[in-house]
């Protein structure tokens, strides 16, 4: 399926983009009406929009790449970890990332679709339904924002240590904890940027934000597409030991702590509490 241009063919890339846009349309159809909010077993919210987007994406990916299994946040059947870890490739999907933002109707939610190859997020697409913005990328092959059928390349900017500036740091609207607050204090001169969902990765890739620290639970489908795009733009998603994030390697689908950087040369180790 791969070609010299990247981990997927142009036909698969454009097919996934079309699927993401169709999922966004399904989400907006619910967003325009009154909708109920159901609480899952972990107390996280789910709506008819999550389920509608899930159906669009799963049906679309099965038709586009029938040989690649799919793990979606809204899958009714949980694949046993032993079976899942035996897969070489898989699609990792969050049909509606930022359901809390969807419920608040602030527009800061996305569709996330990522291709995982031997644990690495090798291709990702993020669609913002309300604005229509769409990003896609692959580590080593670039990151792009697509408008219509036209791609514009993204390059996360580099910082000059001789000319320090206030770093723009993601401050989640729905997830803020004491460890993040302490990290912001250790960085010192910061400009907090509140933003929901995987849009934070896109903002990093575009150069509109510098650092996204996250302590506490996220799931692999929350970060995989964003990591592929950010790394395509020259950024990084690292664990506290400096290792790139990997996927489908453990029994759990939950991530550990991470820090996402537009410029990986920033002194991020100095900002972490050594007790973490």
- Tally of DSSP β-strands: 14
Helix proportion of residues, in percent? Answer: 25-40%
The SSE string, one letter per element, is HEEHEHEHEEEEEEHEHEHEE
- In the predicted model, the low-confidence regions spanning at least 5 consecutive residues are none
- Specify the number of helices: 7
The helix/strand class is alpha+beta
Your description of this structure?
The protein is of the alpha+beta class and 276 residues long. The protein contains seven helices and 14 strands. It has a seven-stranded mixed sheet with strand order 3-4-5-6-7-8-9, with helices on both faces. Strands 12-14-13 form a three-stranded antiparallel sheet. A two-stranded antiparallel ribbon has the order 1-2. Strand 1 and strand 2 (45-46) form a beta hairpin. Helix 1 packs antiparallel against helix 2 (48-64) and helix 6 runs parallel beside helix 7 (220-232). The radius of gyration is 18 Å and the shape is globular. Belongs to the inositol monophosphatase superfamily. CysQ family. This is 3'(2'),5'-bisphosphate nucleotidase CysQ. It is a peripheral membrane protein. Pfam families: Inositol_P (PF00459).
Key phrases:
EC 3.1.3.7, 3-stranded antiparallel β-sheet, 14 strands, globular, alpha+beta, 7 helices, 25% strand
Topology:
Layout: H1 10-31, E1 38-39, E2 45-46, H2 48-64, E3 70-72, H3 81-85, E4 89-97, H4 99-104, E5 110-117, E6 120-127, E7 134-138, E8 142-147, E9 150-154, E10 167-171, H5 178-187, E11 190-194, H6 199-206, E12 211-214, H7 220-232, E13 236-238, E14 258-261
Parallel strand pairs: 3-4, 10-11
Antiparallel strand pairs: 1-2, 4-5, 5-6, 6-7, 7-8, 8-9, 12-14, 13-14
């Amino acid at each position: 399926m791969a070609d010299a241009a990247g981990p997927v063919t142009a036909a698969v890339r454009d097919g996934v983009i079309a699927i993401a846009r169709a999922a966004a349309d399904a989400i907006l159809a619910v967003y325009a009406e009154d909708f109920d909010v159901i609480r899952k077993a972990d107390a996280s919210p789910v709506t008819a929009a999550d389920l509608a987007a899930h159906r669009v994406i799963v049906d679309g990916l099965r038709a586009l790449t029938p040989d690649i299994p799919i793990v979606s946040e809204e899958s009714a059947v949980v694949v046993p970890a032993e079976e899942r870890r035996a897969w070489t490739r898989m699609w990792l999907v969050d049909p509606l990332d930022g359901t809390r933002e969807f419920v608040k109707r602030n527009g800061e939610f996305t569709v996330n679709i990522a291709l995982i190859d031997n644990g690495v997020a090798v291709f990702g697409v993020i669609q913002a339904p309300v604005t229509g913005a769409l990003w896609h990328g692959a580590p080593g092959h670039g990151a792009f924002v697509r408008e219509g059928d036209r791609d514009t390349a993204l390059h996360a900017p580099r910082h000059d240590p001789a000319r320090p500036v206030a770093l723009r740091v993601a401050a989640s609207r729905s997830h803020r904890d004491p460890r993040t607050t302490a990290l912001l204090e250790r960085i010192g001169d910061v400009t907090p940027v509140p933003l929901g969902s995987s849009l934070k990765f896109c903002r990093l890739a575009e150069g509109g934000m510098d650092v996204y620290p996250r302590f506490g639970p996220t799931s692999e489908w929350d970060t995989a597409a964003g990591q592929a795009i950010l790394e395509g733009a020259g950024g990084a998603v690292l664990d506290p030991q400096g290792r790139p994030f990997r996927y489908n390697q453990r029994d759990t689908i939950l991530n550990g702590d991470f820090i996402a950087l537009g410029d990986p040369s920033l002194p991020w180790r100095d900002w972490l509490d050594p007790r973490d």
